[in-house]
Amino acid sequence: MLAVGLLLNSFYSVAQNTTFTHADTLRGAITAERAWWDLTYYHLQVKPNAADSSLTGSTLVQYKVLKPSQVIQIDLQEPLQVQKVVQDGRELKYKRDGNAFFITLNKEQKTGNKESIEVFYSGRPRLAKRPPWDGGVQWVPNGKGNTIISTSCQGLGSSVWWPCKDHMYDEPDSMMISVTVPANMKDISNGVLRSVIDNDDQTKTFNWFVKNPINNYGVNMNVANYESWDEVYKGEKGDLPVSYYVLPENLEKAKVQFKQVPMMLKAFEHWFGPYPFYEDGYKLVEVPYLGMEHQSSVTYGNGYKDGYLGRDLSGTGWGLKWDFIIIHESGHEWFANNITYKDVADMWVHESFTNYSENLYTEFYFGKEAGADYVIGTRKVIANDIPIVGTYGVNQEGSKDMYYKGGNMLHTIRQVVNNDEKWRQILRGLNKEFYHQTVDGSQIEAYVSKHAGRDISKVFDQYLRDVRIPVLEYQFKNGAMQYRWANVVDGFDMPVKVQIGSGKDQFIYPSTDWKSVKAKGTTTMKVDRNFYVESKLAKS
Length: 540
Ligand SMILES: [Zn+2]
Description:
- By secondary structure, this protein is an alpha+beta fold.
- 22% of the residues lie in helices and 31% in strands.
- It has helices spanning 22-28, 32-35, 251-257, 260-272, 324-331, 348-366, 368-377, 404-417, 420-433, 441-452, 457-465, and strands at 37-49, 54-65, 71-75, 81-87, 90-91, 93-97, 100-104, 114-123, 136-141, 147-152, 174-182, 186-188, 192-198, 203-210, 222-224, 227-235, 238-246, 282-286, 291-292, 298-300, 339-341, 437-439, 471-477, 480-486, 496-500, 506-508, 515-518, 525-527, 534-537.
- Strands 5-4-8-2-1-11-14-13 form an eight-stranded mixed β-sheet.
- The site of zinc ion has 6 residues, from helix 6.
């Protein structure tokens, strides 16, 4: 996902819901009707009809019984309707509660058994209002008598266009996506194209298979008269199939702009380890919205220009050296698709690291100072409005600061680690330790703290759960500099690099109590620019 409001030149804070509805809980909580079964496989079959912007289809849901229960929750958002639900050939009874369906199973559900149900549905799905931020389904006539169709649904939820277990904690181990479209159009979805079936009614069915766990909002369909080309990237795990799908009128400029893809793969494999989905390949697919991190089907709508629609968010010039959408959305293959949050309250796990990948890409090709310039330059769009961590169990994300403040938090932590190779190994280690998993933010914090060589849990508390920026207060007295942290959470003890007078850079270890260090013949101190903190000369 992308940060909102950048185009509006102002970074507006998102009003934080404080009262939550029954629907928020049904959407955001691991309800009893979700907890007893482990989702293992989906087969989504869908036929979009551009004539009336409707969908018809079904989802086969395979699962393992974790403990006995007879009512299963499947989600599908209004105005879509469930036509019927079937298990072992028999129709089942169900009740609708807003966007959730509670289906009563006839067959006794025994622990350890593998079962499946199929949910048939149809209707006119919610139209995307401002994709990808306010998603749904988009139907865009291409002026040649056909309609381009695309989906985006993070936050809102994939149940906006297909029946599923619409909570992020549980992913299928694999999935088949079958989309039926007019014969002169193509559907590009996630994973590998298994087959294309010619049907009798002037349509074709595209069968895509995803061999890896996939998060709900990563599942997508993209229908257009695509042109395509392929290449093979020689990566850390061998040959990675790479494919590109663009509109015919953009083919030539796409072939130039997408040369950045192998550059991206090289930089991110260096920092994060192997691309996490070699079995499914990497794809870049043109769509009529800005872009989205759909797993093994990253979508692109940045107009074949560098920057963010031609703009540099950092104001340093470095952001105009590369295509924001190719880099940011692809960075999500590691942080969002490989390592996925269980609850959107921890969306920083996706966005802070992926925002941070922008300056790591800049560093890889333009040097360490360029990368630092970029991340520091983005500080001007930090709002410090509300905490980055949202509210658990009600589908409520936190502040949009999860992007730029999150990136600056990670850049600051890198300074505390003070060993670049160790830091790189922490980023690679995260992708190995939590490979293809859904996680709590606390697991990521604990892992970084454990491998950073010092407990930095207070640093995470400060930047993720508070809106205050640490202030290093200092004063000079009797040939010494006294210093302490102010404006911080209790127990905040982050080391910081400073230059006292014209001396060499040195680390000091402030806490909230005054400490002192020798500082003869000087009354100036400068904090290293890479730390996202402020400093203030205390009044003596
Ligand atoms: Zn993002």
